[in-house]
Amino acid sequence: MSTAPADLPAYARRLPNLASTKLxxxxxxxTDEWFAPAxxxxxxxPAVFLPDEYDAHGKWMDGWETRRKRVEGxxxxxxxxxxxxxxxxxxxxxxxxxxxYPPAASLEGCFVAAGEPDADSAWxxxxxxxxxxxxxxxxxxxxxxxxxxxxxxxxxxxxxxxDGGVARxxxxxxxxxxxxxxxxxxxxxxxxILTGARIVAYNDxxxxxxxxxxxxxxxxxxxDGWETRRRREPGNDWIIVxxxxxxxxxRIEVDTAHFKGNYxxxxxxxxACMHGGTDQSIVTQSMFWxxxxxxxxxxxxxxxxxxxxxxxxxxxxxxxxxxHPDGGVSRLRVFGHRAQG
Length: 341
What we know:
The chain is mainly beta. The chain is built from two helices and 22 strands. The protein is globular and about 70 Å long. It starts with 9 loop residues before the first helix and ends with a strand.
């Protein structure tokens, strides 16, 4: 996937998609899936259209599509998010659905600590009914001031009125992770999206996705990582990660899996313990952060582990990975334990 267009809402550019199948999101119930299963609606890849593709149910469509409703009511689909989080925005994408899209949709949420929602689960409205158009993206920010305050969401229910097809559902949010519940000495992957880490900023992401850098597991191919364009001017590329909590770093892994002719020649890492400010001010301040990992040579398609090479700079909340001069990194893993206080 190429760099996100600049006209995307800020939440879609800077936050992870909690409805990502790569991260583990899954539809758990749907009123109808006659023409196309709800699993397609959560695909991480952009929707496609195959003009000559048909199956036993009719025209093959890349998304979730219900049959034409001939009775009262409406269709809905319940999705277990990959990770519980504070939802900031959504996209109800009707790409390639032109004469078969729903005229309207709404979104509800609930939080279930373990398992799936049941008859006693408390659902609440995240997004009131909105009009939809065919073959279009519908971006909507979630206004928590109208919802009585922020709260984590583990499941969402997409309602479509009355029937039709949705190509993709994207749900962007901040991971809900209670780091304070951990023992200060517990070993933790501080940079993992699973523990609340997020990408703050990067200077370039021409290929791949910057969010893949902190995703679980090793990259499955060269597209599953952060890769910059070929640099034709002096300097180096960089990316900043906010850790899931303030921590003492004990070990770092820089994984260049699948990057063989386009891995960076070397890398270094700066870090700091930040309080306050905005993402933009953090970018400015990061130029002067202390060096956590001095410049290290990198090789192709390999996990590079650093422990003895790390400088002791105390607790940190953010790290800046510098790659020299450019190239691709599949994963960055920063291990350590939660700092006290």
